[in-house]
Structure formats: C-alpha cells, structure tokens
Amino acid sequence: MRVYNFSSGPSVLPLEVLEKAAAEMTDTNGTGQSVMEMSHRSGDFKPIIDRAEKSLREIMKIPANYKVLFLQGGASLQFSMVPLNIAAVETGALRKKITIIDTGIWSVKAAEEAAKYADVNIAASSKDRNYTYIPQNVKANPGDAYFHITLNNTIVGTKWPYLPETGSVPLVSDISSCILSEPIDVSRFGILYAGAQKNLGPAGTTVVIIRNDLIGRAPSWTPAMLRYDIHETEGSMYNTPPCYGIYIIGLVLDWVKKQGGVEALAEINRKKADLFYSYLDGSKNFMPTAEKASRSIMNINFVSREKDPEKKKAVETRFPKEAAAAGLVNLAGHRLVGGMRASIYNAMPVEGVKALITFMEKFEKNLQE
Ligand code: PMP
Question: Which of 231, 258, 285 marks a domain boundary?
C-alpha cells in the first residue's frame, strides 16, 4: 500500500517513475545492465546524462549562455562553492563583499559558509517574526560579488513573492524546494542550485545552473572538486557522478513533460496549496503560520490555534501520529520550529491534499467532542 507522503525531502516521487525504474532495474535500455552497474564513461551512460540535461533545459527554458552541472554534496555544498567560485580572492587580496537576505535557517547557513571567503552583509532579515515573511524592498550594493536569496524556505514554509532587482550584481538562489514547481525566469539569475531530493529525484545529486561568465573565477587554491570550471570542462564527470540519481532525474523530467511541463504543474500546485490554505484559514483548530503574501506552495506550515501551551503541544504531538496511522505520513514540523508541515511537492496528487483535509476535519470533530 502506498501512503500519502508529506515529507519535506527526501519526498514523494511519481509512482510511474518508481515503476519504470523497477522494471529497468536489471536491464536498462537493452544494455543488460542496471544503471548502477554502468561505467559512467561508457556509451551506455552518456545518453542518460545528456538526456537529463536536455530535458531540464527544455522544461526550465534555460538560455544557451548557462551551463547545467550535476554535482554532489547537496545544496549545503553550494553554500561553500558559490562564494569560493565567485567571491573568494587570491591570498592577500582585498576580500569581496556579498549580500545575503536572511529568510531562515538555510540562508543563515549560506551566510555562515560565505563569511569564510567574503565579507557578508545581511541586508534584511525576517527573523523578527520567526521567519514567517519575506522582506520587501531589498537592495543590492553595486560592486558586490553576488546577492543571495533562498527562493523557497522549506522549514518555515515561505516563498519570495517577487524577485529582487540586483542590476549587474549576480542574483544567486537556492531553489532546492521549489525547482520545477512554477516557471522561473532563469535569465534573472547568475546561479541557481538545488538538491534533487524534493522535486527532482533521490538525494545525492545537486543541480547547478550557472551563467557562463561566472565560471572560471575561482582562486587557484580552490580544491578541484569545488571548482565550477573543472566540472564544466569535464561535463559533470571530473569524478564519478551520481549516476543512478541522474538517471532517476531523467525519468522524473520525462514525467514532468508528460504532465504538460512546469506551467501545467504550477497550476496544479497552486490549486493544491489554495485548497489547503483555505481549509486552514477557515479551521477552528488549526492555522497556517506564514504571512499571506509570502506563502509557499510547496511547504505549508501550520499550528494548533489552542492558546494553552500544554494543550497546544498535546494536539501537535497527537496529530502527526494519528495522521500517520491513517496513511498520511511525515506531517510533523521541522525539529527546529515545531508545529506541523505538509510538503506538497509536484508528485503529491490533489487527492492526497483532499485526503489530508478530510482527515483533519474528522480530527477536529474528535477534538470538540
Ligand atoms: N536549502 C534548502 C532550501 C533546503 O530545503 C535544504 C534541505 N532540506 C537544504 C538547503 C540543504 O540541502 P542538502 O541536504 O541537500 O544539503
């Protein structure tokens, strides 16, 4: 039996992708091998990685002056690779400046790593209201090496409702939890990066989309594995790439195309999010935490409306347990923020959201009895 999985990542994948991978497990494309057994340099694997890149370019309408890299180390390694490659200087040179907007834990981590290589200015933060909103009117400092945002904040369930204007300063964004959820104008960015384990495939692959002119700026002391130019020259095969993960990404991208592309998925995603937010807004017992203008359509955080902290905690502990028993799993909030969270990525069908609402309505009735 398949459950409805509301995990924030690794998370639900389309059933037909899993079934195709299972069917091809011992013999992929008539090669008589699993993708896990293929040499990454072989003629068997090359078409798999090429096709995954071609599909991603097509689906995201990635302009020709951008490279697509399939790397490892998660989005977390990009917190180091971005500053190393486009902000760090040769030993002894004056440090460059960058700006980071603090919209939650992941942007704090991006700032902490960047501070090892550059002077970081946190130009705005939403920490004052527990990261429940996205700051307005943020400004780039001309001359900065880059300007960093976390487009969708997985832990607190917020999303940038607009893209900041940064002029000639490259806009860099972590899109781990919103890649392929809605169309995105890649040409507005210098670098986009995402861990695969939400909308793209299994954990272990990181996708980096980088504008050509930002490649080749790393100082000479940068470790080879952390240099975009080396990965680019080697076609993401400087070392053994995460072959199986790239193969699954390819299958997921085939599925995305079959759904009608990212535009069609965005429509369904907005519908799913609207359904759940309107239920929460009208609920007597639960309420969403993100401010209206900054709500994520991928991660929806909610809490009990109970005023008494003990009773509130009791409801929030009971809810995910009872939901899991009913086949609706992974609804507890992130350990750092508590409460509850439903992650409704591309592969979560509308039926899953409806089943969650029906379960919550019953749960509410029980609470009132
Ligand atoms: N950024 C965001 C927005 C995330 O949601 C996550 C993981 N949930 C990370 C970064 C860290 O990603 P990874 O575990 O792939 O390093």
Answer: 258
